[in-house]
Design brief:
Blueprint lengths: L3 H4 L4 E6 L4 E3 L5 E3 L2 E4 L4 E4 L3 E7 L5 E5 L4 E7 L2 H13 L7 E4 L3 H6 L7 H4 L2 H26 L8 H23 L11 H5 L3 E7 L4 H11 L4 E6 L19
Antiparallel strand pairs: 1-6, 2-5, 3-4, 4-7, 6-7, 8-10, 8-11, 9-10
Helix pairs in contact: 5-6
């Protein structure tokens, strides 16, 4: 096992972020250059701080990095020209387009300047309302199935499959209805920035990988004092987390 970490290929075939509350059993670890090499993917006792995994090509070996999970940094830029230079400077420090999303009413300007704009998941609320709708539908389905079972309105020989079908149909219907409602609603996380966007400002959503957050903040502070460090979303993967706008934005 001692040579596995040094011999694996570092051509990444899959990369993902998970908020682990677990660590790998110490008997399975080989510490090398500050990382842990795991050969069988078995996770054991709890330990705070293990947050990131990357899967590499050699026998799907997993490297588990110590550090904080990826965060989403919110910055407001006043003009399209400032947005263009911020985007260029982010590229210069190694932040790829995939991790830079800009929300603005000026979609034509973003397209003209070839600035990576946001997606529907970031701007609309259908993911949150869809999940809520599915949960409500599930509860309604459970109640309906229990009511049918208790009253025997369809007779005593109703199969278990029928009860599960009632629950499943209600869950899907609730989720579908929630998605429909959410497509007409602004993402809940943008409520703090609605007025700024309507007033013509440009909202950056910068997904900072492990170790990049401080670099991004330092660059923005030094090169773009006109921008506003507005918020940090540490749980951007869940649509139910709140994003609170910073009050003291001067201290970045």
């Amino acid at each position: 096992m001692s040579n596995r970490c040094s011999s694996i290929s570092y051509s990444t075939i899959f990369r993902a972020k998970y908020d682990f509350d677990t660590k790998v059993s110490t008997s399975l670890l080989n510490q090398e250059a500050g990382n842990y090499c795991v050969t069988d993917g078995c996770f054991g006792q709890s330990e705070a701080g293990v947050r990131t995994i990357e899967v590499f090509s050699a026998n799907t070996t997993i490297i588990v990095y110590r550090g904080k999970i990826m965060k989403c940094l919110y910055y407001l830029a006043p003009t399209l020209a400032s947005t263009r230079t911020i985007s260029d400077d982010l590229h210069a420090i190694g932040v790829k387009d995939w991790f830079i999303h800009v929300i603005s009413n000026d979609e034509a300007g973003l397209k003209k300047e070839r600035i990576h704009s946001s997606n529907y998941i970031e701007t609309l609320d259908f993911l949150r309302t869809g999940l809520l709708g599915a949960y409500i539908g599930f509860c309604v389905g459970m109640f309906a199935a229990f009511l049918i079972m208790a009253t025997r309105v369809f007779g005593p020989n109703v199969s278990v499959v029928a009860y599960f079908s009632v629950i499943l149909i209600a869950t899907f219907f609730g989720g579908w209805l929630g998605v429909l409602l959410g497509t007409g609603m602004e993402n809940k996380k943008l409520s703090q920035f609605h007025e700024a966007i309507q007033n013509g400002q440009y909202l950056f959503l910068i997904y900072a990988r492990k170790g990049k957050g401080k670099t991004i903040k330092a660059m923005m502070r030094d090169r773009h004092p006109e921008s506003e460090y507005a918020a940090t979303d540490e749980h951007f993967m869940t649509p139910f987390s709140d994003v609170v706008r910073r009050k003291h934005v001067a201290s970045q």
